[in-house]
Amino acid sequence: MLNRRTWLANVHNGLGALALADVLQASGPATNPYTPKTPHLPRKAKRCIFLFMQGGVSQMDSFEFKPELTRLHGQRIPGSHHVEGELQGRLTHAHSIVGSPFRFSQHGQSGRYLSELFPRLAGHVDDLAFVHGIETENPNHGPSTLQVTTGSQFPGSASVGSWISYGLGTENANMPGYVVIQDPRGAPVNGGHVWGNGYLPAAFQGTLLRNEGSPILNLARSSGISDQSQRAELEQLRKLNQRFNNQYPESTELEARIASYELAFRMQTEAPELVDLSSEPDHIRQLYGLDDSRTAGFGTQCLMARRMAESGVRYTLLVHGVQINSNSWDDHGDVKGGMTRHSQEVDQPVAGLLADLKQRGMLEETLVVWASEMGRTPFVPGNVGNKPGRDHNKYGLVMWMAGGDTRGGATVGATDDFSLRAAGEPIPIRDVHATILNLMGLDDEQLRYPHAGRLRRLTDIGGYVLKDLIL
Questions:
Q1: What is the number of structural domains in the chain?
Q2: pLDDT tens digits along 257-275
């Protein structure tokens, strides 16, 4: 007969062994980390293009029509508002409302108001589903950029693209599952952390495509080495790496390196062709604005994104804006001049991307997401001045999605009359992430990875899917 203490000890040891076996199975080496995986949910979207506007797009000058701001221009915001921290402190001091300098008009069957800054995007308004009143946890660029792109305001977490690549694998064995095309003028805040793999296996980090020369560093084969010689060298290297990997199966970096050598060998043929836009006809180049110096930069990024999606790349991240300078959307001064310049750079390329995907029958299988790291304030400290700008507002982020099972013309959430904060309950960014995963066929509850003693996920404590955005 077992006494109670012995019985409990045996039971606990058995449960521990089962848990350990599950963790080891989840984190052990895979034959190929890029192998396509079956999605959790039946969804149309097979790939995602994420458009990230660095700096904080002013929502009341782009996608939120707030006539009260114009009516009360120069006055103090009336009433009390449930905001905290830095924004609350600013409201307690002298401030002035800044009305939008741009006209708004309704478009499409949905009758959505858009700023005059986006005339071409307005032609696709019925394909767009908007989310208003999104709240992040930090009003500063660095942490907020990380939270929108990785789910956490702290470095070291896996990016949205890494999670989608981890959950679905890739459709094209000759290209990375996750590609990054940043602004040709420079890198965003936090650099590679924005597209890093974090605690996920290293194979799922984003691959940065360069704007000049070889699209990927060290991709081209050295002169004098034949295809057969390189293949034999890689085969021998694979055997040595695999021998070491069998002894240390927890080394995901080595597993990723083995896979990357094989991938690089195959990419030497396909990658240069994909980034070579010379074969695109003139009407397509004009559609994306490649014939205009103002739109050529982001137009090239958008056209390359379409080619990546066409080739089966699972997730493509496009970044518009450089750090926090005049080339970003961070318009603390002269919001009229800044927003005019930024929108001119992206309106035609984004509209061209949507039109091109649609005419090729690809929009139905491609989820397109527009995001920034925060919204802006409807007021400035003190008096309005000659060229007023807008400060940071963690309560005012607006995002939109298109393609796949997205319900075009839908709207979720809202902000108050001053675009200061959500009207009602704010929408945390984790809910938006859960919705993106859902539209890609991934269940936030099932997409997990064991790390540091817990099962991690993109939404951390979990998010609610915004079902009104989904067909």
A1: 1
A2: 666 666 665 666 566 777 8
Q: Does residue 102 register a pLDDT over 50?
A: yes
Identify the DSSP state of 277. Answer: G
The percentage of residues in the chain with a pLDDT greater than 70, rounded to a whole number, is: 84
CA distance 179 to 34: 13
H/E/C letters for each residue in 92-113? HCCEEECCCCCCEEEECCCCEE
Helix, strand or coil, per DSSP, at residue 49: strand
For the chain, helix (H) and strand (E) counts, in that order, are: 11, 17
Looking from the CA of 79 toward its CB, the CA atoms found within 13 Å total 7
**Tokens standing for 304?**
């390359």
The 10s digit of each residue's pLDDT in 302-326 is 999 999 999 999 999 999 999 998 9
φ, ψ at 424 (rounded to 5°):
100, -150
Q: In terms of C-beta density within 10 A (0-12 exposed, 13-18 middle, 19 or more buried), how is residue 312 classed?
A: middle
Q: Which 8-state DSSP code applies to residue 214?
A: S
Rounded CA gap, 156 and 161, in Å? Answer: 14
* Inside any domain, residue 8: no
CB 454: neighbour CB atoms within 10 A? 9
pLDDT at 26: 40
State pLDDT tens for residues 103-114. Answer: 999 999 999 999
Tokens of 37: 């995986």
What is the value of pTM for the model shown? 0.86
Boundaries of domain holding 207: 23-469
Lowest mean pLDDT among 29-38, 93-102, 363-372, 387-396: 29-38
Task: Please name which of 34, 88, 38, 17 lies closest in space to residue 255, comparing C-alpha atoms.
Answer: 34
If DSSP codes are grouped into helix, strand and coil, which group holds residue 188?
Answer: coil
Other C-beta atoms closer than 10 Å to the C-beta of 232 total: 11
Q: Which of 429, 432, 461 is nearest to 445 (CA)?
A: 461
Locate tokens 């939120």: which residue? 64
Q: What is the pLDDT of residue 460?
A: 93
- Dihedral over alpha carbons 249, 251, 257, 260 (to 10 degrees): 70
Three-class SS state of 399: strand
Strand pairing category for 379-381 and 95-97: antiparallel
In a domain, residue 10? The reply is no
How many Å apart are CA 376 and CA 390, to the nearest integer? 6
Task: Examine residue 11 and state whether it is found in any structural domain, yes or no.
Answer: no
Determine the pLDDT at residue 247.
75
CATH number of the domain at 89, please: 3.40.720
Region 82-90: mean pLDDT is 85
381 located within any domain: yes
pLDDT tens-digit readout, 193-237:
999 999 999 889 999 987 666 666 655 556 667 777 766 776 777
